[in-house]
């Protein structure tokens, strides 16, 4: 009874796709793109952005605009002060709404605006009506100029670096930091000059009035120093946090956008490389930048020392030279150790993640000993390298402290002789001592930052490698936009080999699948069945040959748009931490309850969801560990059909289901896919009832292709030859 009810529910004539929530900023971007005759698709401009239920936010808008080929700038101005030369402009309105302002006629009091609900054509409204809803924030937007193929580069132009360009965006803040540093270091002169004045003028003459005046001035300077130091820390932290958020977002966007053929082989090592950004983040924090900013001002204090007594400059200069000379001497060794530490750390992460992921298998085959030995070997090596690195770092800090102490002692020795000869006063000597510490302190601290510097440099080099890897959606791709997908598929002499593999997974594969056709792909292990579905989904690109969808090379189609029309079920049945509903709607979060129920019915999830107290809110655990293998496959099937795609690519979709559940799935799936293109990779003959055509693969080549009964008969009689490898 339950089966009949669910099957009947799966056959309901539900609308294709859910009604996407209204997103004012996306609609405004599309309106402006149309005015510049630039085609833009909603799903494409928000692809990969961290959207929530509120849709595209002003802070995310520049990233969406960049995907559409526009540059943008957010400004806060009264409506009448907006620059008409930069119209059309997007106005942010109250209640999370937005509109496009095309023209503002102040003389007549009229504004010409476009609202997404009313279409693209501008409407005429009183300025006061718009101004009453205007929040005071607007977005200027203009298309970026792009060179075409007729204008090759005469020389390689300097391109914006993913890291330094973000740092450069905080230039106004760094100017404020520099200004604060100048004042802080000028105020630092107050105390030594005050002490010199007290010893040389106030005490000998008992000039109490002078004492109070100078004391008040110094206290005022110290108050200003405290305020400026707090402001400097605030500005440095603000710039660091801004850079941190943008850089972290850029790195994650790059990682998620990587073409799979360029994905690193080890997930653990790759994760360690990404975590290396922590070293870069630590290096641009307040303490580091404060030391680096203060370092140039050491020359100011050296000049003041020379003005008091030039012979006392000599010990200071010798001390500075000694610290930097030792630091430069150990540069090479420290760089090598830092790189070793980085690589061994990546290996440790790879070993850890591999062990945690496969811990069930490790226990089942009694492999704890070998993994424990491998882990301890890596950890021991990392500890040894870390010990050497810490020793070098400590030697720099200790050496700098010793040099600073020696410089102070030499300063007093030279100072005593100068005082005895009448060339220096007691106040001058004490002032020089304080100034000497002001010189040596940033020098010593900057030398101690060598380890952090090398860690940041190594990490940045590694991240540069990642950021330069090819992505699926390059800025200058110029993808073709398709409003709909019929479901015609064609392979034309396709050759493909996986990265670092000499043997081709596909060798000269050609076939054509018509819209609405149901096809099964059979073949031995490693014959190329799964690879075909991966190429259709655009997960990999052929080495040569072409894959067509509806007669268009899929390399011309935006991957996001392509996969919106494809429901793909891989062998792994990968789930993510969260609820059952979260996993079903993973790529289609706006799905309605009706769509979720329909998809769950097709995936046979109602067989256990209806009996669970939490229903679709039940937690599935990491990688779906709280579910059985068959249940995980049901979730993945539901995820594949949730947005009602035109093409379904299923790879062993029921390999872990029992016969009863598989039978329910077949009945519901057969009703659902009547008008869809279906491609099923399977070793189970029971699923062949869903198809009317079979393609047989062997050795990366098509060895048979035809009606189901004819191909099955040929297989039984041994009439289909195998490819010799």
**Mean pLDDT over all positions:** 85
- Structural class determined from secondary elements: alpha+beta
Assembly type of the shown chains? single chain
CATH fold category name of the largest domain:
ABC transporter transmembrane region fold
Q: Taking Cα atoms only, what radius of gyration do you get, to the nearest Å?
A: 35 Å
Q: What is the CATH class name of the largest domain? A: Mainly Alpha
The count of DSSP E runs of length 2 or more, i.e. the number of strands, is: 16
Q: Whole-Å distance between the termini?
A: 52 Å
What does this structure look like?
- The chain is α+β, with helices and mostly antiparallel strands and 725 residues long.
- The chain has three domains: 24-143, Cysteine proteinases (Cathepsin B, Chain A), CATH 3.90.70; 164-467, ABC transporter transmembrane region fold; 489-716, Rossmann fold.
- Helices cover 52% and strands 13% of the residues.
- It contains 27 helices and 16 strands.
- Helix 1 packs parallel to helix 26 (659-672) and helix 15 crosses helix 19 (450-467).
- The longest helix is centred in the middle third of the chain and has 53 residues, at 368-420.
- It is globular, with a radius of gyration of 35 Å.
- Mean pLDDT is 85; it is low at 1-19.
Please supply descriptive tags for the structure shown above:
disordered N terminus; Rossmann fold; 725 residues; six-stranded mixed sheet; six-stranded antiparallel sheet; 27 helices; ABC transporter transmembrane region fold; alpha+beta; Cathepsin B, Chain A; globular
């Amino acid at each position: 009874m339950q089966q009949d009810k669910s099957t009947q529910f799966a056959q309901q004539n539900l609308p294709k796709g859910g009604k996407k929530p209204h997103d004012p900023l996306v609609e405004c971007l599309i309106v402006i793109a149309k005015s510049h005759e630039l085609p833009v698709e909603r799903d494409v401009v928000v692809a990969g952005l961290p959207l929530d239920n509120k849709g595209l936010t002003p802070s995310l808008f520049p990233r969406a605009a960049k995907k559409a080929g526009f540059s943008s700038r957010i400004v806060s101005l009264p409506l009448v002060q907006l620059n008409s030369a930069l119209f059309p402009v997007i106005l942010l309105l109250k209640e999370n709404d937005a509109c496009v302002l095309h023209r503002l006629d102040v003389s007549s009091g009229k504004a010409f605006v476009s609202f997404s609900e009313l279409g693209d054509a501008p409407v005429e409204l009183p300025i006061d009506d718009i101004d009453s809803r205007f929040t005071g924030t607007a977005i200027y937007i203009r298309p970026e100029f792009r060179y075409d193929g007729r204008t090759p580069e005469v020389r390689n132009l300097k391109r914006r670096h993913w890291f330094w360009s973000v740092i450069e965006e905080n230039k106004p803040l760094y100017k404020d930091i520099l200004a604060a540093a100048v004042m802080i270091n000028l105020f630092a002169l107050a105390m030594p000059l005050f002490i010199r004045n007290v010893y040389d003028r106030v005490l000998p003459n008992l000039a109490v009035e002078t004492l109070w005046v100078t004391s008040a001035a110094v206290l005022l300077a110290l108050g200003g120093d405290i305020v400026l130091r707090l402001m400097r820390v605030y500005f440095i932290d603000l710039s660091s946090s801004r850079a941190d958020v943008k850089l972290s977002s850029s790195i994650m966007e790059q990682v998620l956008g990587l073409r799979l053929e360029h994905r690193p082989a080890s997930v653990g090592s790759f994760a360690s490389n990404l975590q290396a950004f922590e070293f870069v983040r630590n290096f641009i924090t307040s303490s580091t930048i404060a030391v680096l900013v203060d370092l140039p001002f050491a020359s100011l204090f050296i000049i003041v020392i020379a003005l008091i007594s030039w012979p006392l400059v000599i010990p200071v200069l010798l001390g500075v030279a000694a610290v930097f000379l030792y630091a430069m001497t150990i540069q090479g060794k420290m760089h090598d150790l830092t790189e070793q530490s980085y690589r061994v750390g990546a290996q440790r992460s790879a070993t850890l993640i591999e062990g945690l992921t496969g811990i069930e298998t490790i226990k089942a085959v009694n492999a704890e000993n070998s993994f424990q030995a491998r882990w301890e070997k890596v950890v021991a090596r990392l500890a040894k390298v870390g010990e050497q690195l810490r020793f070098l770092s400590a030697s720099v800090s200790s050496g700098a402290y010793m040099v600073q102490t020696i410089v102070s002692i030499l300063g007093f020795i030279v100072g005593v002789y100068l005082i005895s000869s009448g060339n220096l006063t007691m106040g001058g000597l004490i002032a020089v001592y304080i100034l000497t510490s002001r010189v040596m302190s940033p020098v010593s601290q900057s030398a101690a930052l060598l380890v952090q510097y090398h860690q940041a440099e190594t990490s940045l080099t590694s991240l540069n490698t990642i950021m330069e890897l090819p992505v699926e959606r390059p800025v200058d791709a110029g993808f073709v936009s398709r409003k709909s997908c019929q479901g015609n598929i064609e392979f034309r002499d396709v050759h493909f080999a996986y990265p670092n593999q000499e043997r081709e997974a596909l060798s000269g594969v050609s076939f054509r699948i018509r819209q609405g056709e149901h096809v099964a792909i059979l073949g031995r292990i490693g014959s190329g069945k799964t690879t075909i579905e991966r190429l259709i989904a655009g997960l990999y690109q052929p080495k040569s040959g072409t894959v067509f969808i509806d007669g268009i090379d899929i390399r011309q189609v935006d991957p996001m748009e392509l996969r919106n029309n494809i429901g793909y079920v891989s062998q792994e049945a990968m789930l993510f931490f969260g609820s059952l509903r979260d996993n079903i709607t993973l790529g289609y979060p706006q799905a309605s309850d009706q769509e979720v129920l329909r998809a769950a019915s097709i995936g046979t999830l109602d067989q256990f969801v209806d009996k669970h107290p939490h229903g679709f809110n039940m937690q599935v655990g990491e990688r779906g560990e709280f579910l059985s293998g068959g249940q995980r496959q049901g979730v993945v099937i539901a995820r594949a059909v949730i947005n009602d795609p035109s093409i379904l690519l299923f790879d062993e979709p029921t390999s872990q289901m029992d016969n009863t559940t598989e039978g329910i799935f077949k009945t519901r799936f057969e009703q659902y896919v009547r008008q869809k293109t279906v491609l099923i990779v399977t070793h189970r003959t029971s699923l062949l009832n869903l198809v009317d055509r079979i393609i047989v693969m062997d050795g990366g080549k098509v060895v048979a292709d035809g009606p189901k009964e004819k191909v099955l008969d040929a297989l039984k009689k041994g009439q289909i030859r195998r490819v010799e490898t």
